[in-house]
Design a protein that fits this description.
The protein has helices at residues 3-17, 20-23, 49-57, 72-77, 92-98, 113-116, 132-146, 150-171, 198-201, 223-229, 239-242, 250-253, 257-260, 263-267, 275-279, 285-301; strands spanning 25-30, 33-38, 44-46, 64-65, 82-83, 85-86, 89-90, 102-105, 122-124, 177-183, 186-190, 219-220, 233-238, 270-272. It is an alpha/beta fold and 303 residues long. It has a 5-stranded mixed beta sheet, with helices on both faces. It has a 3-stranded parallel beta sheet with strand order 3-8-9. Helix 4 (72-77) links the parallel strand 4 and strand 5. The relative contact order is 0.13.
Length: 303
Amino acid sequence: MNRMGWFGRLAAVAALCLSPLAATAAEIATALGPVSIKDGPKSVAVYDVAAIDTLLYLGVRPTGTPKKLFVPDLEAKLKGTASVGILQEPDLEALSALAPDLIIVGGRSSHQLATVRQVAPAIDMTIDGKDLLADARRRLSAYGDLFGRRAEAKAAQERIDNAVEAARKAVAGRGRALIVMTNGPKLSAYGATSRFGWLHSELGIPPAVPELGAALHGEVVSFEFIRKANPDWLIVLDRTAAIGETGASARATLSNDLVAQTVAGRTGQIVHLPPADFYIAAGGVSATLRVLARIEEQFRAAP
């Protein structure tokens, strides 16, 4: 190669090193620690419903998502988006065809991080239910930085903070609550250190049974347990409805003589949370706002 050829190659390498793409790497806070990634990805495949919820709220439309999202509002907004598998199992062929700049996993798909990294850079943005609001704030800030939506992220955070404060005021002094998940006819209860414990720690709702543990799937309980706990409030998640299956609804399951003997049952202080928002999309901006709004509304409406 002649001398001018070498100079040409060197000039090209220098230009690449000084190009905007090389200068826009950003450090993003993820569930596994900080990760350096190219700023402003144009195409993103997302395998986490909370992340999809938050991105859409910020005005960022994913280019690839799982086939079923369980949240009707999100499925309507993403109609026509490329399908890249299901939440827990990516379709690597479809993902490769999409060729995204970035892949986001989290929660139910977090175990697939190494797999999807075979296709493109990927980050784990899991939101831990035990510290849900703090994790949601961190993810929201990270997405704002990564996608150039800092102003939108700040406004979203202010709205969540206001909703949290409104819910705190609504529940203050209104008594103890027991968080119950129904799965058809089956019952599980969740305590202050569980995946749903943020309702107690963040909103200040006293637990009806302080000694309940932190089991991921709750503690299997009976109707007798609920009667003995005698909560002033029952906060209810219908898992069957959340995952779109058929079976006994939470309302049908809790229509029980023993539940009716509790303060919550006698007064009708039973709060049915939006199932998919609380269970599948937990931590997403819109989902969190809907959950907080339901709690505020129901506690304020009680005599």
